[in-house]
Design goal:
This protein is of the alpha+beta class. Helix content is 64%, strand content 10%. The chain has a four-stranded mixed beta sheet with strand order 2-1-3-4, sandwiched between helices.
Length: 243
């Protein structure tokens, strides 16, 4: 009997937990905190018990931690600062610039939780955020090797295969991410003399470079990939003459 009485209560608690909203405020360094507090007044009035998480976004990330914050903002669809992001257990679902925060806009923003295109919008924002974070990991993780290198490679390949990826996205990712990552793998395998494994990895990197070049030879990246391929060809030719 007690289990039958407890079950509806547990289900209710689970529902409340799932539907609980989460609030994050993104802002630039130096933003006036008192002014932000005033702009948040409509939220405080509507939900006195609500708590906000505050995240500073630098103009340009200089560390991986700052880049992760920026990627989270991109994932939420942030375009203006300071901005309130509203989310739930399924993730962020709407953004609202603080200077536009009113009881009416807050209510309208919350309605986005059940918008029919929510999943599609989230997928689009997440694709953008993952690309940004991939480039950031490559820039800030030094040396890039082992598990970190494999994570970047897996992410790059997944992004290139993503339904949102355009031909330009694939070419950029292929040239600026996949090729240098494979080349980095090659350098870890090469220890002064070629082995079957290192040679295979070099050929894989060259194939990625050529694919990026051939995707659009007339684009800026296509021309850069062509120049890089010729540089590699010349370097290998010179290496053979020295053997």
């Amino acid at each position: 009997m007690m289990n039958r009485l407890l079950l509806p209560l547990l289900l209710l608690c689970s529902t409340l937990t799932t539907q609980a909203e989460e609030y994050t405020v993104y802002f630039r360094p130096g933003t006036n905190s008192a002014a932000m507090a005033r702009l948040l007044a409509p939220l405080r009035a509507a939900e006195p018990q609500s708590e906000c998480r505050y995240v500073v976004l630098s103009e340009q990330a200089s560390t991986l931690a700052e880049a992760i914050n920026a990627a989270n903002a991109l994932k939420a669809g942030v375009q203006e600062l300071p901005c309130l992001v509203i989310g739930d257990a399924s993730g962020p679902y709407t953004t609202l610039p603080l200077d536009k925060l009113t009881p009416a806009t807050l209510a309208a923003a919350k309605a986005a939780a059940s918008a029919p295109d929510r999943a599609a919008q989230a997928d689009c924002h997440n694709f953008t955020a993952q690309q940004y974070l991939l480039f950031a990991r490559m820039a800030f993780t030094q040396p890039l090797a082992g598990e970190a290198l494999q994570k970047c490679l897996n992410t790059c390949r997944a992004l290139m295969a993503h339904p949102q990826a355009t031909a330009a996205d694939k070419q950029r990712l292929g040239f600026e991410c996949l090729y240098p990552l494979l080349l980095q793998e090659y350098t870890t395998l090469y220890t002064g003399a070629h082995t079957p494994a290192s040679e295979a990895k070099l050929l894989e990197a060259i194939a990625a470079l050529e694919a990026a070049r051939d995707a659009d030879r007339n684009s800026t990246i296509g021309k850069k990939a062509h120049a890089e391929r010729e540089r590699l060809r010349a370097a290998r030719r010179q290496a053979r003459t020295m053997e």
